Amino acid sequence: MTIETTKVDRENLLYRLGFLTRRWRQVLDSAFQSLGVTDAAWRPLLHLHHMGDGIRQKDLAASLGIEGPTLTRILDQLIVKRLIDRSEDASDRRAKLLALSPQGRAMVTQITAKVATLEHDLLSEFSDLEIDQMTLFVERLEKRLQETRSRLKG
Amino acid sequence: MTIETTKVDRENLLYRLGFLTRRWRQVLDSAFQSLGVTDAAWRPLLHLHHMGDGIRQKDLAASLGIEGPTLTRILDQLIVKRLIDRSEDASDRRAKLLALSPQGRAMVTQITAKVATLEHDLLSEFSDLEIDQMTLFVERLEKRLQETRSRLKG
DNA sequence: GAAAAATAGATAGCATACTATCTATTATAT
DNA sequence: ATATAATAGATAGTATGCTATCTATTTTTC
């Protein structure tokens, strides 16, 4: 009697995550093309909306998990498009304060709806339990990666 | 009586995968700096080793899941470093055939060992069951993303 | 209170992904 | 047989991540 086993290729787990990320980015880029914002550009909008107006660039960058220079460039685009306002901080003249413009707020509404639909659609075939497991797994792996990284650097 | 529940933020699952990928790439870049190859460069070496000498660029690109132009540029580097040989295909003069050089083979040995160690270390706190679940999840998600992508494009 | 260190942000340069397009070939169709 | 289509690979241009470094401030230290 032969037992059918699902062959899982464990070797490639981390590798495949990269794949997944690229595909997800491509999907988002296609979906948002009509709105005129790219994957990298809409995230700052949502995070700014979530954190509230008046935050500093460095805090937004930290929230996004990207470095300052990366955010600077993306903000430049968003400011040209009048979606975000960047103003001086009177109490600390090194800093800049960020706020959503009215157009930015309207864009956030559109984006939120679209992302929710896409994510819901993509995850619809998975059970809540599976999604929870996956999310926890990702969190743990993330921590472990950060440890490993600082170990290699230090 | 209050029940302690683990708060899982499902909203961010796909977003966090991007995070994870960046971190993993950073870890690999740090680890391979001494070998003189980057994250993007060692993968073609391993895939070529796995597929065997004499394959074409387009097949290697497909195996890696990247586009032709991206591979072309990475191959340029690997050929300059004498890790890969690129020769003409006599039967089809459009095509180029790829093969590992002796140095390339030696590099593959080093890389294989290093990647295995890193992955094993990173996944050591997870059970086999968890890793299998995760891998299957990633596979399913990948398929679903591909469907969604072609739907959006077509 | 002046010198040194830390912080916020910008700029420059590199790596790697993409798409669009070019050249050179090979395959197909009329 | 020739014209068209398809394929392999290269090149060019764009986007987004990084690190290193610069300026302008603020904070800390002595």
TrEMBL record, chains A, B:
Classification via Gene3D superfamilies: Winged helix-like DNA-binding domain superfamily/Winged helix DNA-binding domain
Domain HTH marR-type: from-to ranges: 10-143
Keyword DNA-binding recorded: yes
UniProt cross-references to InterPro entries, sorted A to Z: HTH_MarR-typ (IPR000835), WH-like_DNA-bd_sf (IPR036388), WH_DNA-bd_sf (IPR036390)
SMART domains assigned: HTH_MARR (SM00347)
Pfam families: MarR_2
Keywords: DNA-binding, Transcription, Transcription regulation
Protein name (database record): MarR family transcriptional regulator
Species lineage: Bacteria, Pseudomonadati, Thermodesulfobacteriota, Desulfuromonadia, Geobacterales
